[in-house]
Amino acid sequence: MRRFFWILILCGAGHPGALAQAKITVAVAANMQYTIEAIKAEYSKTDATDISIVVGASGNLAQQILHGAPFDIFISADTSYPRQIAGASLAVSPPAVYARGVLVLWTVRRDITPGPDLTLLKDPRISHIAIANPATAPYGAAAEYILKKYNIYQSVAARLVTGESITQTSQFIATGAADIGFTAKSIVISDAMKGKGTWVELNRSDYPPIEQAAVLIKEAAPNPAAAKFYAFLFSARAKAIYQRFGYLVP
């Protein structure tokens, strides 16, 4: 509540001429880095709220919130981290799923072609395989799961290059620092990465559903701008953007 006390002071509460533009800060999972900008742009067509975006691995963002980071909304790449926030009584309500993510295998090398059966990863030409940290990044956890399902995790473990988030993992792949790697479909079909290299969508039955959920942080509840943007995340306009970026929508 202390934060809102100071917001009222700075905005000149009770003096209409001194009211400042509404501001919110949103913690966003790295797989959503391009998608959230499109959502923000769409939202700005009808609302002037100043929206600051902080991108990171879902697990790292959750830890920041648990330790008091002043975020208004948490948009995760899974449901477990938002549940942690709700379980700590820091969320207004239980997590709500806004989309389901899709895992892909991606390379910018022209001499190799990824396939959904992952057999390429055993190729001696593959020296480095990028994967997001399974402990903090849900897409990394999904990648680890599929490697183990195909019984090739142990044979490629020494060649895994771990990114802190899907953003860093994708950079490893896009720059050629890794020969190939696992990332989110929303990354490879974004305008920033579209047409770079070759990717294949992995069989959705080969890894647990990547259900992505969000929560409105309790400290933000008195701020109508935060509640309004949170509601927008589940609107038809937002769902159309999720679909454009390769997500499945409920």
Could you explain the architecture of this structure?
The protein is built from 10 helices and 10 strands. The chain is of the alpha/beta class and 250 residues long. It folds into 2 domains: 2-100 and 210-244, Periplasmic binding protein-like II (D-Maltodextrin-Binding Protein, domain 2, 3-Layer(aba) Sandwich), CATH 3.40.190.10; 101-206, Periplasmic binding protein-like II (D-Maltodextrin-Binding Protein, domain 2, 3-Layer(aba) Sandwich). Helix 2 (33-43) runs antiparallel to helix 10 (236-244) and helix 3 runs parallel beside helix 4 (80-87). The longest helix has 12 residues, at 138-149. 43% of the residues are buried.
Main attributes?
250 residues; alpha/beta; D-Maltodextrin-Binding Protein, domain 2; 10 helices; 10 strands; disordered N terminus
Brief summary of the model shown:
With 250 residues, the chain is an alpha/beta fold. Helices cover 34% and strands 21% of the residues.
CATH topology of the largest domain: D-Maltodextrin-Binding Protein, domain 2
Distance from first to last alpha carbon: 34 Å
Instruction: Output the helix-strand order.
Output: HEHEHEHEEEHHEHEHEEHH
User: Roughly what is the average pLDDT, rounded to an integer?
Assistant: 92
Low-confidence stretches: 1-18
CATH class term of the largest domain: Alpha Beta
Topology:
Blueprint: H1 2-11, E1 23-29, H2 33-43, E2 50-56, H3 58-66, E3 73-75, H4 80-87, E4 96-101, E5 103-107, E6 129-132, H5 138-149, H6 153-156, E7 160-163, H7 166-174, E8 180-184, H8 185-188, E9 198-201, E10 210-216, H9 224-232, H10 236-244
Parallel strand pairs: 1-2, 1-3, 6-7, 6-8
Antiparallel strand pairs: 3-10, 4-10, 5-8, 5-9
Helix pairs in contact: 2-10, 3-4
